[in-house]
Amino acid sequence: ETAALFSRPIGVPTLGICGAEDQCITEDVFLGAMRESDFPGGLETRSIADAGHFCHGEAPDAVNALLLEWFVRHPA
């Protein structure tokens, strides 16, 4: 159940990415909702300049660069 997933801490390293120009979930709301205490495995947040809600489609090179760097530092 989806609600159960949100009721316990996330135990794996987590990367949260948002668009700095997101008008649906603003950057300050996104960053404020990402509490380190909810991510005992580690949390990093990044904001993509000049991108909105669909930053992966609006700035794919920037998002891909973040993901590749993340995967290098967090191998499976």
Protein model, in words:
Strand 1, helix 2 and strand 2 form a beta-alpha-beta unit. The longest helix has 14 residues, at 60-73. 38% of the residues lie in helices and 16% in strands. It has 4 helices and 2 strands. It has a two-stranded parallel sheet. The protein has helices spanning 2-5, 27-33, 55-58, 60-73, and strands spanning 14-19, 43-48. It has 76 residues and is α+β, with helices and mostly antiparallel strands. The protein is globular, with a radius of gyration of 13 Å.
Entry summary:
This protein is an alpha+beta fold and 76 residues long. 38% of the residues lie in helices and 16% in strands.
Annotation keywords:
76 residues; alpha+beta; two-stranded parallel sheet; 16% strand
Per DSSP E runs of 2 or more residues, the count of β-strands stands at: 2
Biggest sheet overview: 2 strands, parallel
Strand order of the largest sheet: 1-2
SSE run: HEHEHH
Count of DSSP-assigned helices: 4
Oligomeric organization of the protein chains? single chain
Compute the gyration radius: what is it?
A: 13 Å
Q: Helicity range of the residues?
A: 25-40%
Overall form: globular
Secondary structural class: alpha+beta
Task: Walk me through the topology.
Blueprint: H1 2-5, E1 14-19, H2 27-33, E2 43-48, H3 55-58, H4 60-73
Parallel strand pairs: 1-2
